[in-house]
Amino acid sequence: MHRRVSRLIDAQERWAKPVGQWNQRWIAAAFAGSRPLKDFLNGVWLGHPVHPAVTDVPVGALTAGMLLDLTDQRRAADVVTATGVAAMVASAATGAADAVDAHGRPQVQATVHASIMVGSLAAYLASLAVRAARPSSRPLAVSLALLGYAGIAAGAYVGGELVYGSGNMVDRHAWRTGAARWRRLDVDEVPEGAPMQARAGQDTLVLYRTGDTIHALHDTCAHAGGPLSGGTVIDGCIECPWHGSRFRLSDGRVVRGPAVYDQPAYEVRAIDGGGLEARRLPAPLD
Length: 286
Ligand code: FES
What we know:
Blueprint: H1 2-10, H2 13-31, H3 35-42, H4 51-54, H5 56-70, H6 74-99, H7 105-133, H8 138-165, E1 183-184, E2 196-200, E3 203-210, E4 213-218, E5 232-234, E6 237-239, E7 246-248, E8 254-256, E9 265-270, E10 276-280
Antiparallel strand pairs: 1-10, 2-3, 3-4, 4-9, 5-6, 6-7, 7-8, 9-10
Helix pairs in contact: 2-7, 3-6, 5-6, 5-8, 6-7, 7-8
């Protein structure tokens, strides 16, 4: 079933790609002057994407609303459905903040996901309107809500595929576990004031020297894998060249999104007899 559904989602690329790109342009323009708001919606403050947490509210409320509708508990059903619809709007805002930085297959999936959810939202809004304006048309209101709920279920599946299947907004260093140990770098010198790439065993790091101190972070951006060594250093942080996330050079702490996870940081020391070695630091506490 998963393979068939995946093919069906991928087949939407013809319309979803241009629509997604158009949406990304106006959403990016809307966020252009309010980066802190975008960071808030991404979840930089939480250290975790906000979108999947917020979406639990409409899914739960609208499931309860459906059951209350089906058991004809009208007043409770209306209140719970209206709550779910309000939460859908909040979910849309957090989802837009994440989707604006998606590219390739994740962008297509995000557009399909969002389109289904917008259709579902329209059905629920129509249902609420009928509930308020024409109480005698209760079967129509309930039918519209059921249609919206089917959309929620389908959209949630595509959203799950976007995260679990394509790894969108997943920490690129989630599997980096195990003991930190010293490993020799493949460079002996680090020039002052310019990021440079170096290898430490299987890992690629970005190094940056300020005076006698050599800062080192993993080169693969925690957000979507951008090369930090191609970025610029601003206020003690390195900025990813792909979507502008910033990580503190001293400990890898994320200070600007869309990344919400910290970047693995390393300490670097000179080896007796020449050369450099690096060891991963513990995750920052503050
Ligand atoms: S890959 Fe997106 S900010 Fe680095």
